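Model the whole thing, not chain by chain.
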Amino acid sequence: KQEVTQIPAALSVPEGENLVLNCSFTDSAIYNLQWFRQDPGKGLTSLLLIQSSQREQTSGRLNASLDKSSGRSTLYIAASQPGDSATYLCAVRGDTDKLIFGTGTRLQVFP
Amino acid sequence: DAGVTQSPTHLIKTRGQQVTLRCSPKSGHDTVSWYQQALGQGPQFIFQYYEEEERQRGNFPDRFSGHQFPNYSSELNVNALLLGDSALYLCASSYPPSAASGYTFGSGTRLTVV
């Protein structure tokens, strides 16, 4: 059974810091891994999708890496801003075609 | 290009009542999945619809049922509501599975059972 874990559970940092959020999964047989952002009480916004054959994806200040063999992904946020404050969720998609989510990392960036 | 649309945004129901939530998928997507997200938790998979059939189901009781229409839109029905059903219900749409296809989520319906 696939299990996804995210650490840390919460993070509070001053503006400008570079951040690393971690995601681990127990079954390496995945199609892809998606990182999402969720603002309080809102839906999920897809940030990055990494296919199982890829090592990383980049979008602006965000970079996500995937090490499928070790069951790990990291989301790197460069030069964090207060507007980055949100919960970040990672989810893996396997051959059952459903997403298995971690419990998220709640990020607060203060000015 | 409209994304995933869910209605209503918020809903308050009494224990024992029934509720119907609605979802319109992103244009071009034919698969709709429903997730339940309790406060402080990651979303949990309820079920998935493709070609108007329930293709797979998560660990949810039969009180949770759904439907997909020919235009790919979907409904989630919950009968005999319990206080524990209070959550954010998320709809997601996608193409058939491939490594390159991701899910697009709606803004969710916040259900409160009192």
